[in-house]
């Protein structure tokens, strides 16, 4: 019997035998919080918020030292060896760097702890005082993590800054926090040199790149910097050890500068206790966390999602292998053809991801299936539809023999893209489109836990449980948090709404941070402490509770625009719907209260459009020229209309006109954040003339 026929008959038999009615599992339960209005839900397993999972542990430095003692010989931090670096040129004359990366080389927990202790001592020997702040301004790597833990052992507050931050925001962040020592990479050092005359307090630069020479000095304007290498600081501390000066739970561990979507960044002050609460809560959600797990780290450590995740991994004796978004898979842009990407080499079991990354994985798989065609495509489509119906039907179909059958026949090739061993993915940083969540869940054979949190809540808020296969929701409250909805009458969202309470989301618990650095006015506006002592953060997001206590994000105050005739448009909701088009790499919807319709800026997906142009014999010299053609606009716009109709968008929500953008929006361009969320105001300013033309034409 052919695999195709087996795929039809086996699922039918099992579904008929095993289908049964399921009682809804309660994942969050209502709770009364004294003296506060609103509808409050807590985690179903914990009556009170969890602040530490480990007895006697109150800070991140204590947790790290305990783990290094318990897992002394286990591998902790892994980095790939650079075999070669090459430059390739494309047909239009652009140059691309391609890397050949080798095996992972590992440092054990014991080795890392020694490096951390040496680096902490070296900082003091270098002249860095306890009252001074350290900034880490670098891409994610092992030395970033070691530097962080080294600072904690001296009770130093670390200012985290995205490596992609622009000059104005970088200068603002360093001056506002009066940083005296900056830990950075080689390319970040060049950015610092460019603004050196504007930095008021910087005295020392520690460069983490291996090829950086020994101690030098640099005069920038009226300032003089001492520049030294990470290895020299570590050696200095090894030769001159100093006893640690460990922090307390209430001490500020991190001032984290957001790459916010509007205005200058705000510095969020996080205590050791705040971050520890989120780390502790995650321990209760993902089952079976332990020393056999391997985590692929590639998101910015200056983002709280990644910082919290790596501290979880280090706490349980697991291994962290470092990669980058541009070397993640075998087909990634910077990987030399025929060599392995980070995931293939590391074969991780755990990952965090932002929706933009998962959307690209989904798009890549879909494109490959379409290109292959024939029997392979029919088998894939059958497998996908059967897995989807099984997940929506019987428990047995979702997790039993049928799952094993399809994984073996079809989906193991897809799983191989991320190394073949993924058992859990956490998605955070932005809403994940339901179709992408289903697709990744089915094709990887592993659950995606959608989380909801903010920098201001140390990434803690809600988290989908391992056995929750629903989509479009962000789970029940984490054990460290209460989640409250409060009325927002102006937007029409009330906790008394039926059948689901709706309102602005407010997060309370030990993970809620202290406030914004040197910004008491903004802190008082969005942080409140109730009479029972619970600290709350008012998010500005709009949510609704499902009957099982899980939260769904349905809107955001700032994203709602009232059109000329009184209709309300949720920009984020429409963008999340339209980005599923195979031609769309990114999109920004624009609505103007003085018009009755919307327009959109669409960043085109080059590979998909080039393939369409080739099939239809549309001649062009450059991709930019292709994006200007009338046929291209019609094709892309048609795909948007199709996506809008499938999602049942209202007519006024669908953009009437679009502008195709040929250049990708990247953190380096300043048009998206490090978590790849669009910077709406920055994009509006950069494309103001294009938007004006769309409305006037």
Automatic annotation (TrEMBL):
Pathway: Phytoalexin biosynthesis; 3,4',5-trihydroxystilbene biosynthesis; 3,4',5-trihydroxystilbene from trans-4-coumarate: step 1/2. It catalyses: a long-chain fatty acid + ATP + CoA = a long-chain fatty acyl-CoA + AMP + diphosphate. One of its GO terms (biological process) is phenylpropanoid metabolic process. The keyword Metal-binding does not apply. SUPFAM superfamilies: Acetyl-CoA synthetase-like. This is Ligase. Gene3D superfamilies: N-terminal domain of ligase-like. Keywords: ATP-binding, Ligase, Nucleotide-binding, Phenylpropanoid metabolism, Signal. PROSITE patterns: AMP_BINDING. Residues 97-517 form the AMP-dependent synthetase/ligase domain. GO terms for molecular function: ATP binding; long-chain fatty acid-CoA ligase activity. GO terms for cellular component: endoplasmic reticulum; membrane. PANTHER family: ACYL-COA SYNTHETASE LONG-CHAIN, ISOFORM J, LONG-CHAIN-FATTY-ACID--COA LIGASE. Belongs to the ATP-dependent AMP-binding enzyme family. Residues 1-15 form the signal peptide.
């Amino acid at each position: 019997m052919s695999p195709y026929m087996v795929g039809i008959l086996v699922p039918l038999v099992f579904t008929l035998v095993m289908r049964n009615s399921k009682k809804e599992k309660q994942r969050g339960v209502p709770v009364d919080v004294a003296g506060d209005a609103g509808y409050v839900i807590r985690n179903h397993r914990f009556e009170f918020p969890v602040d530490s999972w480990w007895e006697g542990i109150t800070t991140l430095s204590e947790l790290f030292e305990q783990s290094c003692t318990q897992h002394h010989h286990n591998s902790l931090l892994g980095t790939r060896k650079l075999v070669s670096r090459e430059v390739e040129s494309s047909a239009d004359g652009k140059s691309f760097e391609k890397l050949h990366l080798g095996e992972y080389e590992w440092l054990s927990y014991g080795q890392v702890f020694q490096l951390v202790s040496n680096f902490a001592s070296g900082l003091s020997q270098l002249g860095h005082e306890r009252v001074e702040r350290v900034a880490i301004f670098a891409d994610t790597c092992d030395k970033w993590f070691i530097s962080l833990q080294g600072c904690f052992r001296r009770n130093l507050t670390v200012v985290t800054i995205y490596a992609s931050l622009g000059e104005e925001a970088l200068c603002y962040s360093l001056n506002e926090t009066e940083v005296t020592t900056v830990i950075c990479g080689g390319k970040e050092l060049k950015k610092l040199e460019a603004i050196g005359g504007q930095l008021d307090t910087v005295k020392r630069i520690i460069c983490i790149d291996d090829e950086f020479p020994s101690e030098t000095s640099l005069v920038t304007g009226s300032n003089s910097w001492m520049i030294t290498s990470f290895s020299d600081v570590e050696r200095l501390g090894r030769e001159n050890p100093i006893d640690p000066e460990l922090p307390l739970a209430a001490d500020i561990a991190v001032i984290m500068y957001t790459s916010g979507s509007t205005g200058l960044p705000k510095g969020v002050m996080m205590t050791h206790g705040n971050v520890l609460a989120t780390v502790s809560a995650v321990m209760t959600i993902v089952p079976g966390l332990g020393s056999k797990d391997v985590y692929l780290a590639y998101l910015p450590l200056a983002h709280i999602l990644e910082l919290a995740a790596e501290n979880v991994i280090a706490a349980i004796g697991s291994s962290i292998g470092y990669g980058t978004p541009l070397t993640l898979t075998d087909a990634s842009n910077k990987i030399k053809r025929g060599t392995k990407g980070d995931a293939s080499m590391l074969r991780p079991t755990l990952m965090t991801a932002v929706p933009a990354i998962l959307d690209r994985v989904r798009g890549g798989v879909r494109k490959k299936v379409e290109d292959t065609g024939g029997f392979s495509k029919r088998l894939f489509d059958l497998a996908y539809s059967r897995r989807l119906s099984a997940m929506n039907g019987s428990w047995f179909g979702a997790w039993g023999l049928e799952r094993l059958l399809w994984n073996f026949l079809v989906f193991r090739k897809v799983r191989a893209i991320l190394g073949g061993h993924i058992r859990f993915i956490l998605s955070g940083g932005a809403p994940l489109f339901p179709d992408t969540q289903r697709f990744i869940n089915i094709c990887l054979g592993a659950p995606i836990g959608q989380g909801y949190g903010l920098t201001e809540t140390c990434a803690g808020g809600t988290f989908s449980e391992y056995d929750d296969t629903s989509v479009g929701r962000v789970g029940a409250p984490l054990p460290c948090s209460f989640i409250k909805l409060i009325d927002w009458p102006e937007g029409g969202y009330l906790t008394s709404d039926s059948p689901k309470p709706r309102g602005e989301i407010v997060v309370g618990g030990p993970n809620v941070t202290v406030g914004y650095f040197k910004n008491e006015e903004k802190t008082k506006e969005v942080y409140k402490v109730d009479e029972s002592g619970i600290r709350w953060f008012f998010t500005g997001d709009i949510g609704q509770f499902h009957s099982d206590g899980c939260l769904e994000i349905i809107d955001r105050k700032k994203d709602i625009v009232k059109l000329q005739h009184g209709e309300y448009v949720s920009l984020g909701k429409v963008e999340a719907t339209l980005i599923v088009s195979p031609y769309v790499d990114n999109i920004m919807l624009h609505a103007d209260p003085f018009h009755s319709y919307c327009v959109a800026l669409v960043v085109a997906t080059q590979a998909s459009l080039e393939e369409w142009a080739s099939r239809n014999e549309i001649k062009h010299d450059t991709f930019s020229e292709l994006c200007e053609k009338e046929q291209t606009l019609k094709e892309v716009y048609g795909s948007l209309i199709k996506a809008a109709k499938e999602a049942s968008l209202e007519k006024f929500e669908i953009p009437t006109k679009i502008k195709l953008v040929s250049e990708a929006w990247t953190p380096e361009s300043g048009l998206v954040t490090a978590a790849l969320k669009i910077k709406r105001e920055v994009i509006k300013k950069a494309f103001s003339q294009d938007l004006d033309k769309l409305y006037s034409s």
